[in-house]
């Protein structure tokens, strides 16, 4: 029998809304929420049905209801509709993770196409801002769910996706770096605005994880595959991993987002976890 002072019950019993949720880190976050007892999960992405089916199956394997919503985070009306659809299905949104993102061109400032640069800013910065805007609007309308008595009320929690590039940079990443610096800034401002209304906003800055994010642009820039065979980008990738100490797994990012989202982190706002 468990000692009575130990916590029991789900860590994250609310509804999670995750952009970029069909694959990669977004999907790992969804699975982490599912494992911690979320009552419903919405995966928002622009990928095709096959990718959505895979992402949804990973969540449903944990026995949690999951809906998929095709929406582009750079389109305000699609963001609003995605939120409305989630609320229609589950009644509320307790946890939002804004993880839709692209790498953009890996080229020097002088060699980068201006429209390609603008698109990285649109997806990675404007997209996060639009989601945050409409998530806050939804969350302030809700009452807090009670996870543990004695905790300060939390109407909702938002975790934005920053990056190591929110603090430092690398040659050939001016668009991505600018966008991720912007995410850090908008998280700080948003967190200070929303805290008085019971909404917490934080961001996480993952290191280097072998998702599909960089694959296409990396191949364009180097002619090599980043995720492919044994020799795939060994040079570049081993340098990245040396910087962070070891290879990271996607669920390590997923679990951090869940921990930041629950009222156990109730006094944490405006925080960036690497
Ligand atoms: N992988 C890394 O090393 C790393 C490091 C730091 C930060 N990040 C960030 O993590 C987040 C997730 O990326 P990932 O590494 O899992 O890569 P990923 O490419 O697997 O996931 C990104 C997801 O965002 C979706 N997406 C792209 N544009 C969109 C749009 N306009 N609207 C809706 N969805 C869109 C993609 O379809 C994809 O499913 C990104 O914000 C990325 O910048 C990744």
Automatic annotation (TrEMBL):
Keyword NADP part of the UniProt annotation: yes
Keyword tags: NADP
InterPro entries attached to this UniProt entry: NAD(P)-bd_dom_sf (IPR036291), Sc_DH/Rdtase_CS (IPR020904), SDR_fam (IPR002347)
Cleaved signal peptide residues: none
A UniProt-annotated Pfam family: adh_short
Family: Belongs to the short-chain dehydrogenases/reductases (SDR) family.
Protein name: NAD(P)-binding protein
UniProt organism field: Recurvomyces mirabilis
């Amino acid at each position: 029998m468990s000692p009575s002072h130990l916590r029991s019950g789900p860590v994250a019993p609310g509804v999670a809304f995750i952009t970029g949720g069909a694959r990669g880190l977004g999907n790992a976050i969804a699975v982490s929420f599912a494992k911690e007892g979320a009552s419903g999960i919405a995966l928002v992405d622009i990928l095709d049905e096959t990718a959505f089916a895979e992402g949804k199956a990973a969540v449903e394997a944990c026995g949690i209801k999951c809906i998929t919503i095709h929406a582009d985070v750079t389109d305000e009306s699609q963001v609003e509709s995605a939120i409305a659809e989630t609320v229609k299905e589950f009644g509320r949104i307790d946890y939002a993770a804004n993880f839709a993102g692209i790498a953009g061109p890996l080229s020097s400032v002088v060699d980068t196409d201006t429209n390609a640069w603008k698109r990285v800013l649109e997806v990675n910065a404007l997209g996060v801002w639009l989601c945050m805007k409409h998530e806050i609007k939804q969350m302030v309308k809700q009452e807090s769910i009670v996870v543990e008595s004695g905790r300060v009320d939390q109407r909702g929690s938002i975790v934005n996706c920053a990056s190591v590039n929110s603090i430092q940079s690398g040659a050939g990443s001016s668009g991505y770096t600018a966008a991720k610096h912007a995410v850090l800034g908008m998280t700080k401002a948003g967190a200070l605005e929303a805290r008085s209304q019971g909404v917490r906003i934080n961001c996480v800055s993952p290191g280097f994880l072998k998702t599909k994010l960089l694959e296409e642009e990396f191949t364009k820039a180097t002619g090599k595959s980043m995720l492919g065979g044994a020799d795939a980008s060994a040079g570049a990738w081993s340098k990245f991993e040396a910087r962070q100490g070891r290879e990271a797994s996607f669920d390590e990012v997923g679990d951090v987002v869940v921990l930041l989202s629950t009222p156990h982190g109730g006094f944490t706002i405006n925080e960036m976890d690497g």
